[in-house]
Design a protein that fits this description.
3 strands, 14% strand, single chain
């Protein structure tokens, strides 16, 4: 494994260094030449996994004046985990959630009048 080639003693206290009241002076030591070539060949072997990011504000804003999206469409577009579909004037909680998009749609026109993350 790549981590095994690291010289764990590289920052060990130097026995010749003068000790101070705050701590011990540390002097970096060189890594063996063979270890450098091993470290240079290290490759991350973990599988690539998509990282779930919080809701995308710009994508949410792009919903305004369009037709009301389904929850699945809104989640796919904004990268949100949850969707709140509301109407103008409807009471909502004010807790902030970075993974939520709230879409306010005019019921008479079916158009999005506001969309925001949080």
């Amino acid at each position: 494994m790549c981590g095994e080639a690291i010289d764990h003693q590289a920052f060990a206290p130097d026995p010749l260094a003068r000790q101070h009241s705050v701590g011990v002076s540390r002097k970096p030591r060189a890594i063996a030449p063979g270890a450098r070539s091993i470290l240079a060949g290290c490759v991350d072997q973990r599988p690539t996994v998509a990282i779930k990011r919080p809701c995308n504000d710009r994508a949410a804003a792009s919903l305004v004046s369009g037709g009301k999206p389904t929850d699945a469409e809104a989640m796919k577009l904004t990268n949100a985990k949850t969707v709140g579909q509301i109407e103008p004037g409807q009471m909502v909680t004010h807790d902030y959630r970075a993974d939520r998009v709230t879409i306010e749609t005019n019921p008479s026109s079916g158009r999005v009048v506001s969309a925001r993350c949080g």
